[in-house]
UniProtKB/TrEMBL annotation:
Classification via SUPFAM superfamilies: Putative DNA-binding domain
UniProt name for this protein: MerR family transcriptional regulator
All copies of domain HTH merR-type, residue ranges: 5-74
Gene3D superfamilies given in the database record: 1.10.1660.10
Keyword vocabulary terms for this entry: DNA-binding
Length: 133
């Protein structure tokens, strides 16, 4: 086995994703192992790990599997080195820009939720330390 390939256990440790989650992403076509060992074990490269990290970062922001696939397809097309049709590069960049804007909005929504949760926790803590409890 080449030193550039990793088995699924190492990939799971590096990405902090479970083996089951990685296999699920493989079943849905979001990531495909770059190779198989002679024994049939999945083998991954740094590129595969980077792809899984994109998926991992999108998940807590509530992106669907289809949205993940659309973003990955756009970035794959841009990174392929293949000649693009006239206007295709701009279309792909516009699609990625849409994901960036959606991510920024979702991050802002999460900040608002976090502030509310922290306020609630502080209210409970104050209640516990107030006289009469």
């Amino acid at each position: 086995m080449s030193s550039e390939h990793m088995q699924i256990g190492e990939v799971a440790a590096r990405t902090e994703l479970s083996l089951r989650t990685i296999r699920h992403y493989e079943d849905t076509g979001l990531v495909i192992p770059s190779a198989r060992s002679q024994g049939g074990f999945r083998l991954y490269t740094e590129t595969d790990v980077a792809r899984l990290m994109v998926i991992r970062r999108m998940k807590p922001l509530g992106f669907t599997l289809d949205e993940m696939r659309a973003l990955l397809d756009a970035t794959d097309r841009l990174d392929s080195g293949e000649e693009l049709l006239p206007g295709e590069r701009e279309q792909l960049l516009k699609r990625i820009q849409g994901f960036e804007q959606a991510a920024q909005q979702r991050v802002e929504n999460l900040r608002t939720q976090l502030a509310r949760a922290e306020d609630f926790a502080a209210t409970l803590a104050a209640r516990l330390t107030s006289p009469g409890c």
